[in-house]
Fold this sequence. Notes:
Elements: E1 3-7, E2 10-14, E3 20-24, H1 25-38, E4 42-52, E5 60-69, H2 74-93, E6 97-108
Parallel strand pairs: 5-6
Antiparallel strand pairs: 1-2, 2-3, 4-5
Amino acid sequence: EITTRLVGSEMCKETGFYGKLLISDSALEDIIKIIGRKLEGVERITSIKVRRRSDNSKGIVISVEVVLYYGVKLFAVTKQFQAKIKEKIEYMTAMKVNNVNVSIRSLAVKK
């Protein structure tokens, strides 16, 4: 049986026989940064916030602010970014992601 609870700023997964697994917010941020670097159309990520509820069974909310390249389909890129973040975080951490909010802060011209 696996149970989840919050310990400071880390997610603690009780894995029973094997002990505890702690996943920090910075580990989640690193996953998101890597996804952003690999995604076509994202110039850079300016801010990442992870909100956890005290009852972690209800999941987490991720807010990301990005700078996109001028000329890309903004809606398509942000939808793909949201889907990739949700998919990878849930797959890699076994945490439920309720929402991924992406805000476009500005546009950059490709050189």
